[in-house]
Amino acid sequence: MPDVYYDYESMASAEAGHYTVSYRLGTSPYAITAVHGGLIEPHTSAIAAAIAGTEHSLYVFEGHRPGGRNNRLHINSHKITEPAALYVASRARYVVSVHGCQDREAHDIYLGGLHEELKALLKARLTEAGFAAIYAQDSADEYVRSHFCGNYAENICNRGQSGQGLQLELTRRLRSRLCPMDDTGVIDSSALIEFATLVRGVLV
């Protein structure tokens, strides 16, 4: 589905009060972002926060439209000009951007971005741990190849000081597995901690 709004500015003027922005700066060279957090791409906020821990910078844009339809707040990653997002990215050497996608093929993780070394290292670690990970460019799905590669220089994942970053597209089934909720709406974090620890292990 195409975005409702062409850019952040048009979305912000039409959707004031339907989203929140939060961020904090860390001490490492990395920033972790969830630019489609909250109810736009569910669980990406929690996953990004778990990866960030206390040492990496964290930026989260969360949608919470009353009555739903939070997909209206989605802005393509290469069109994100929200000031805090650009500020956090500019203060980091590398940006890791966490996204959510629909279930596609048999894979659960599509790796994109211009940091080829980091992408290769994480793919190897994920595969060793039993996750179904693939480079987005190698997918048999044309939609994945055209939308998930994260190869625009303007993509938020490539807006760090190095100009090279990492984009993680996580399927709905994987996000649900990482963030299962009990009857009170509390996330059982054991699987999430395991996944975040694995990703954090390559951010050195």
Task: Give a summary of the structure in a few sentences.
The protein has 204 residues and is of the alpha/beta class.
3D structure, described in words:
It is a single chain. The chain contains 7 helices and 7 strands, in the order H-E-E-H-E-H-E-E-H-E-H-E-H-H. With 204 residues, it is α/β, with parallel strands linked by helices. Helix 2 packs across helix 7 (190-200). Strands 1-3-2-4-7-5-6 form a 7-stranded mixed beta sheet, sandwiched between helices. Helix 2 (44-52) links the parallel strand 2 and strand 3.
Chain-wise SSE layout:
Elements: H1 8-14, E1 19-24, E2 30-38, H2 44-52, E3 57-63, H3 83-91, E4 94-101, E5 109-112, H4 116-128, E6 133-135, H5 142-147, E7 166-171, H6 172-178, H7 190-200
Parallel strand pairs: 2-3, 2-4, 4-7, 5-6
Antiparallel strand pairs: 1-3, 5-7
Helix percentage range: 25-40%
SSE series: HEEHEHEEHEHEHH
Low-confidence stretches: none
- Oligomeric nature of the chains: single chain
Q: How many helical stretches?
A: 7
* Proportion of residues in β-strands: 15-25%
| Major β-sheet profile | 7 strands, mixed
Gyration radius over CA: 16 Å
Shape: globular
CATH architecture: 3-Layer(aba) Sandwich
List keywords for this structure.
alpha/beta; 7 strands; 30% helix; Aminopeptidase; 204 residues; 21% strand
